[in-house]
Every structure is written in structure tokens, then in C-alpha cells.
Amino acid sequence: IASSATRTQAIASQRGERDEGPGSMMLISRGGLSISRSFELRLELSPAFAESIMFVVRGAGPFGLCKTISISRWPASRLYSTKTHDPLRILFCGSDEFSIASLKALHAYHLKQPNRIASIDVVCRPGKRVGRGLKKIRQVPIRETAESLSLPIHEIDTFTGWTPPVTPNGPINLIIAVSFGLFVPPRILNSASYGGLNVHPSLLPDFRGPAPLHHTLLAGEKSTGVTLQTLHHKTFDHGTILAQTPPPGIDIPNPDFCTVPELLNFVAPKGAQLLVDGIKDGLFVPPVKEVGWRTKETTENLTHASKIKPEDLHIDWANWTMLEINRRNRVLGPLWSKALVASNPSDGPLTFQQKRVILTEIEEVEPPKGCDTLAVVPGLPFVNVPCPVEPKKGRALHAFTRDGRVLRINKMKVEGEAVADGLRAAIKARMFGDRSFQSESVEFTTFRNPLV
């Protein structure tokens, strides 16, 4: 303190201000201040003292004007009061890699500041039976992380009839749900004196819902962000926004080629840091303040990030452009359609049925010579050889998209069959018609019907 006072007086002297001794200077900190009648400086330190110190240097005379000199090791954005709170006994609800990043960051802060975070209990959903015969159990990823951190684990598939544990330090006083999947009911939130928090990987209120990363990429967004909000008592993602990535957001790396795992790895540490900073600054302590920066103009056309369903991967040949098909294939995975398949002639009279085909490997290519007339029927696969089609080397299966671009189907999986070369799979499933046509001296054979 004496060293700081000397520096402050020196600064005052350089400015031509008269030094009236120790009694002419006040030291203000976030920890508190008192100055005795004898002008002796006394400082009451708090844990936040090291974060921000401000000196007030008085001018001459009893009513002299004051000038301030601030010294801080934090950026200006963190120069606001930290709300005091009881040691936190956290119930952390999570599941995937996004929530794992937040849990690890919280645990690291807990080890560093046990007086701020007294304990962390982890809630996750039970493992699911998978594989042939459902003999294997696949655990949610966060369970392994919680075990490695030696944190108490509670498995629940519903909050009905379940009560949060009472820790050795007392009852749970803060609920944190990150990418959990279950709605935390008011009964649980009300039992915690500080309510609940959530980290969401979007700039709320845009992309509310369970799949914000998928829909951010599907919408072709070039930037994104993370949001810290309170847990709403009635619905998902409608809490008070306590902290958020500043406008206009952060640029998505290589947005035209970015995948969901890549975007997750990009935003997860940012969400974790936002959560820890919110804990440090006591943003959850009532009364909470809404700081969302989206204006009315930017919230008129919001996108709901609904759960991804199988139908979202079903190609709409009549409406999807090549851009849409490529984007969905990159974000959601292999797309599917339905093809008309003929029965085996040796089994009796010819019959037809629709079978699902998964296009496991596709790419955009230049149109083969003479195929322009086929562009009028999007989704009609063809090959540039006469009927009957044989699976010779160098031949490939193509189809036009709505915007007149050509998709090559390198590999596909027909319902009930293994993944195979696209042309061979189509021949084996008897998808080609029994007639060919000629265009610009090139013969083409198509499927009996377009894919639907």
C-alpha cells in the first residue's frame, strides 16, 4: 500500500498538484475502505482486491477536486461489482462434449477457489442399450468425465419423484444445466436459493431449441456466439440473458465447410469461459440483469433450432438446390431418398415397391456430355450407357438437382443391403428401366421413376 501511495503522489506531483501528505489521498477497492480522523489509511481487503484498485488524488484545499487513477489486471469489461454469495453447492446437469467443457472449467475453478464453489454434483441420464440384441450399454459421455474428476454422479431419466442430494456442506443452491435434454421443473429450481443457469451455443433469442449448432450451419450463418441465461420456470431457452458474446458475434471458421463437431469444438470452450466468468462475477445473484443485445429488428425473423428428425435428411428433389443438398449432407450426414425397385423375374409376375436408399457418398461433378435434356426431371438417376446396364469400370450414376447441377452418386445403401458402389447397387436392386434414349450421339438409361 505504501508503495502504491508513493507512486500515486509522484503522479500527482508530475501533474502540478500539491502533495498534502497521506491525508490527501484515498484508496478505494472493491473490498471496502476506511480513513481515520488522523488521516491514516486503512484498507479492508476482500478476495476481489487483487482484481481492481482505484486511487483518488485530491487537489489543494478542503474542497479540492479529485482525480482518479485506476490500476487493474482485468480488461475494462470486468470492472463492475462482484456480487457476494454463499459458497456454491452446484448440481450440474449435462450430457455431451459441449457440457463436458463447462463441467471441466467449473471443476478447475472449484479447485482454485473452494470458498466460491464448495461442491459439484453431476446429473446425467442413464446409459442406453445399443447394438445387436441390445446387449451393450452406451453411457452418456459426461459420465466418464465426472468419474475421472471424482465427482458424485446421479443418474435420472426424469425429475418426477426425484429430489436433489444434500451435500456434506448443505443443500444444493445452484442448478446448472448445459446441453442436458430434460426440462428442469420449478420444484427443483425453487429448492436452490440461486435458481438455475444454462449455457446455450447461440446468440439468443435466435436458434432457441435442442439443435442450435446444426441449424446455425444449415442456415448458412457466418458468425455465432454463446449465451449465459437463467433457467426459465416454464419453457426452454426463455430465461434472462446474463452474459452473451458481444455483437456482432464471432466468425465461424471456414463456414462453408464447417461441420457440427468442428463448430462444437470451437464454441464449447467459449461457453465454458462465459459460465465461469458469470460465476466469478455473481451474475446469478438476485436481482439479475438482462443484458441481451439483440434488438427488435434483429429478432423479427428468428430460427427455431428444433430437434433433428429423419425427415430432415430426406431429399426434396423438387425444391432443394445443390447448395442445400451439399449443406445438409455436410451438417446432418448421409441423406436418403426412395427408389422404385422391381421384383426378381424368377419369382413370378413383375411387381414394384419403394425402397429407401441412403446416398452414403455423393459429390458435385460436371454434367456428362449430352445429358442436358435430363435436367427437366430433378432426382432421376441415369447412366450414359445403353440398356441393359452393366457395372463396368468408369461408369457412374448421376442425377440432376433442381438448379440444373449434377450430383454423382458414388456409393449408396439400398434398404436391406450393404453399402455398395452406387451403380452396382442400382443394378442389383433392378432400379433401371428397360429402355434407353439417345442424345447428341450418346445413349442414356434412367431409373424407372425419379427418386422421391
Automatic annotation (TrEMBL):
Domain named Formyl transferase N-terminal: residues: 89-246
Pfam families for the chain: Formyl_trans_N (PF00551)
Catalytic activity, EC: 2.1.2.9
Residue ranges of the region described as Disordered: 1-24
Chain intervals with Polar residues compositional bias: 1-12
InterPro entries: Formyl_transf_N, Formyl_transf_N_sf, Met-tRNA-FMT_N
GO terms for MF: methionyl-tRNA formyltransferase activity
GO cellular component terms listed in the entry, alphabetical order: mitochondrion
Domain of life per record: Eukaryota
Protein name: methionyl-tRNA formyltransferase
